[in-house]
Amino acid sequence: MLAVAVLWAPQIERFGDLWQYLQAVLAYAVPPIVALFAAGLFWRGANAAGARATLRVGTLCGLGLFLLTTVLHMVHLQFLYAAPILLAIELAVLVAASLRWPAARSAAVDALLWSGADYRAEIRRLRDLGLFANYRAQALALLILTALIVAAFR
Q: Burial level of 28, CB count in 10 A (0-12/13-18/19+)?
């Protein structure tokens, strides 16, 4: 990995600034992880075979698209468009591989997955808390505050 980093380091200057480079690299590297997290949280059919396939295919697709768009300039696709495209591909791979090689379900796994019943129970629990102890109210206040700060500095 050190040799790869040494060989890759001169390529960073092609991006103009370090922030642009970081955003571009993350847009191509993160979608497989997001696909696994989101599908694993909300879909009971996701399994280890699907996760392995998603990481393998997702890494290859992300690396390939990064090289084609950013390094070789053969494809003109802005990285903000590449991220959702890669996410859709990786979700499809996860679903296909999980359906192709289904795993036995267990009660231990089912207990870790989000459900509508969990949501309703949480609503009942949060209803009894004050606004300062309710994380949803805090998140809403944070979003409003962020919007006001962004608007003030535009």
A: buried
